[in-house]
Amino acid sequence: MSKHAGATTHKTQEMHSIIVKSSGPETSGEILEHIRSKIDAKNTGLNVDRIRKVKDQRVVIWCTSSKRITEIRDRLKDDQKLTVEEAKTKDPLVVLRGVISTHTDEEVRVTTKQNLETRVSRGSADPKNQKLQSASSPHRGPLEYTQYRTQPAPPVPLDTRKPADQLEQLRNHH
Question: What domain of life does the native source organism fall in (predicted)?
Fold first, then answer.
C-alpha cells in the first residue's frame, strides 16, 4: 500500500496460475499434499504465493513470477498422477440492475456498448477510476458482475427522524 495525497491505494501484481488435477480418484486434499511433497519448498527454494482447493478435485496455484510458475509446472508434469494445465481467464458476465426484462440481451449489449463508448469519448469514464453506470439509467448504480440477470433491487426505506430523535433513541436503548 502507498499513500498519495491522503488516499490509500493498493498496488496489485500480476499473478500467474496453473490448475492441477489428479488422473486418479484422489481428493483435492490428497492432491494438495502430493503437490507440497513434489515442490519441496525447503530444498528447492520454490515458493508459491497462493494455493487453493477448487471444485472437481482440482488445486489452483498462483505465483507472481512467471519463472517460478514455469519451474513448478515442470516439476509437477514429471509426475504421472497429476495433470497440469494453464488457467484461462474467462470473460465475466454482467448484470444490469433496473433494466426492463422485455429488452433482449442483444439490445442491452448494444446500448451498454454505445453508452460506454460515448462516455469514454467525452472523457467522463476512466476505467481505472470509475465504475460503469447502468445503460438504462445512470442513477441505478454500478454494474455488478454475476452470472444471472436479476430484477431491480427493492427500495430501501428512508429514516425520516431528526438526528436529535435518533440520538435520544440510542441513549435510551443502552
Answer: Eukaryota
Could you give the angle at the alpha carbon of 92 between the alpha carbons of 88 and 48, nearest 5°? 40
Mean of pLDDT over the chain: 73
149, exposed or middle or buried, with CB in 10 Å at 0-12, 13-18, 19+? middle
Distance CA 92, CA 112 (A): 15
Q: Which residue has the cell 492441477?
A: 20
Model pLDDT for residues 44-78, shown as the tens digit of each residue: 888 888 999 988 889 999 998 889 999 999 988 88
At residue 135, the pLDDT reads 45
Contacts of 60 (CB under 8 A, 6+ apart): 17, 18, 19, 20, 51, 52, 54, 87
- Alpha-carbon distance values, 84 to 26, 57, 125 (Å): 15, 13, 40
pLDDT tier, 139 (very low <50, low <70, confident <90, very high otherwise): very low
